[in-house]
Design brief:
mainly alpha; about 0% strand; about 260 residues
């Protein structure tokens, strides 16, 4: 299968699977949903950190050569700061519940609720577009790396899309409307993948730095957006469960990477 076909296939799979999974998850009773969501977040943290440190960063350093290690780590640092600024501008949203400081929703159908909806859709579209470009870069370097990166993105997309659904429904959207808009925003991922594929074709010198940006994306989402959600539970048992699931996520990436190689 051609590299571009892999890129488009996985970008579509990530978007459609995460939206449909989140939509079906909303049918689960709210009490059960609130119990399961932290476990999904813990697993997503593990997959993102595993992809960043066990797959993407080693490949970036290997491609750059020993004389450019500092440039790669500097790119990771710059990437973290850029994602921070994007989130401040509400272009990189990662709330995982329907009430958050970034996109606070008051009463359904109110003005505040109406403002949240386009912010979510625009931010999600940009978010998916960037992920499409980064997934494309990973596939260009190595098909196995692209698959591992896609798994990490998919793991955190489910709780993300669940949050999007919750806010849209709270804003007065019907379930069918929320599903349609979320699917449409997810279609920017294959667009980003195609743009990334043609934009990076032949640009071998840029690939280590694109992977470094992907590393920054995974680390930022895991550390800045997902981990704070877990601090709501401080009991020893909850912490032990979180650590077990995070390590499970890392293990999934490790085993997948080993089997593909």
């Amino acid at each position: 299968m051609a590299t571009l076909s892999w890129v488009i296939l996985f970008c579509l799979l990530i978007g459609i699977f995460s939206v449909l999974a989140a939509g079906l998850f909303l049918l689960v009773p709210e009490r059960l949903r609130q119990m399961v969501l932290p476990h999904l977040i813990s697993l997503a943290i593990g997959t993102l950190l595993g992809a960043a440190f066990l797959a993407l960063l080693p490949h970036a350093l290997e491609l750059s050569g020993v004389t450019h290690f500092h440039k790669i780590t500097f790119t990771v640092l710059i990437g973290l700061l850029v994602f921070f600024l994007m989130e401040k501008m509400m272009l990189w949203r990662h709330c995982h519940h329907d009430e958050c400081q970034t996109h606070h929703v008051s009463e359904p159908g109110s003005g505040a609720a109406g403002i949240a909806s386009p912010l979510i859709l625009i931010g999600d579209a940009i978010h998916n577009l960037i992920h499409g470009v980064l997934i494309s870069a990973a596939f260009i370097v190595d098909i196995d790396l692209g698959i591992v990166t896609s798994l990490a993105v998919m793991a955190h997309q489910v709780p993300q899309e669940l949050s999007n659904f919750a806010v849209l429904l709270h804003s007065g959207y019907r379930r069918g409307q929320a599903l349609t808009w979320n699917i449409m925003s997810s279609l920017t991922a294959p667009v980003g993948g195609i743009l990334g594929y043609y934009g990076l074709a032949g640009a071998d010198s840029l690939m280590p730095y694109m992977l470094a940006i992907a590393v920054a994306s995974c680390i930022y989402i895991a550390v800045a957006d997902l981990i704070p959600d877990l601090h709501n539970e401080t009991h020893l048992q909850a912490t032990a469960e979180q650590m077990l699931l995070i390590l499970s996520g890392v293990g999934v990436i490790y085993l997948t990477h080993m089997m593909l190689h």
